[in-house]
Amino acid sequence: MILTIEVIRDGAFTLLSDMERLDIIRISVPAKNSVSEGKLSKQFAGALHLSDTGYETYQNMLQESRNEWTRDIY
């Protein structure tokens, strides 16, 4: 079972540490929320590791898919 606990007083850390030492609980520090650290474009820049030709192909495919949204479908 996983619970989220909000610690109100610093003395609670000692109590929680004692409980962890007795193998009653396990303390896990949550990972930072990476989305709030900045723009996604900055976080994922260069993440694809494409060659120049691969990047050009990727950009062309993106442009084609964007054009599909504006095309009339009748």
Description:
With 74 residues, the chain is mainly α. Helix content is 46%, strand content 0%. The chain is built from three helices and no strands. The termini are far apart.
Helix content: 40-55%
Could you tell me the strand content as a percent range? under 5%
Largest sheet: none
Number of helices: 3
Number of strands: 0
**Overall mean pLDDT:** 82
List the helices and strands in order. HHH
The Rg value, from CA coordinates, equals: 24 Å
Uncertain segments: none
Alpha-carbon distance between the termini?
54 Å
Shape: elongated
Overall structural class, as computed from helix and strand content, comes to mainly alpha
Compact description:
By secondary structure, the chain is an all-alpha fold. It is built from three helices and no strands. The protein has helices at residues 11-21, 40-43, 52-70.
Layout: helices, strands, pairs:
Blueprint: H1 11-21, H2 40-43, H3 52-70
Q: Notable features of this structure?
A:
single chain, mainly alpha, about 70 residues, elongated, 3 helices
